[in-house]
Design brief:
single chain, 163 residues, alpha+beta, Naphthalene 1,2-dioxygenase Alpha Subunit, Chain A, domain 1, two-stranded antiparallel ribbon, 3 helices, 6 strands
Length: 163
């Protein structure tokens, strides 16, 4: 897991950057908000805390189905304490997050993932990769799978008798 906020002792393990003089870029706004934490779990599950908004969590699962294809599922969790908050969460999902996250954001993300395929097919893509801090957990998961889980898992043999 990326530790992007203070740990139990209060130490912060990263430095926030609000301006790059080298690139001529400066962040907008003045509210400091911790970056989302990301974590991956076997087998191919990703959790992004505080995304797309503080207090929400996005979960994604990637399941290979063929050598160059996979299934992809995702969900967002919304905390609520009463029916009114639940109705607000459903409304916000149906009228904003569904399009903004599951289509607008993810379509760009999926396009980027597919566009990277040739880079990784050359056999040295993982060695040449230069991940950002937020991507390190995902990149290292892919490296692990690339080294140790080559090929496609065979479907399970049917158990029991056919009727």
């Amino acid at each position: 897991m990326n530790v992007l906020g203070p740990d139990e002792s209060g130490d912060v393990h990263y430095e926030r950057v609000y301006e790059s003089k080298e690139l001529g870029l400066k962040s907008k706004g003045s509210i400091e908000r911790p970056a989302p934490n990301t974590s991956m779990r076997l087998s191919g599950g990703l959790r992004v805390e505080n995304f797309p908004k503080q207090g929400l969590n996005l979960y994604e699962w990637y399941v290979p189905t063929m050598e160059d294809k996979y299934e992809y599922w995702e969900l967002i969790t919304f905390p609520y304490v009463n029916e009114e908050e639940k109705a607000e969460a459903v409304d916000r999902f149906e009228n904003y997050y569904k399009q903004a996250v599951f289509f607008d954001f993810n379509n760009d993300d999926l396009w980027a993932r597919d566009a990277m395929q040739p880079f990784y097919e050359n056999g040295v893509g993982f060695d040449e990769e230069k991940p950002g801090t937020m991507d390190a957990v995902i990149v290292n998961w892919r490296k692990l799978v690339s080294r140790h889980a080559r090929g496609i898992q065979s479907p399970p043999k049917e158990l029991g008798r056919k009727r």
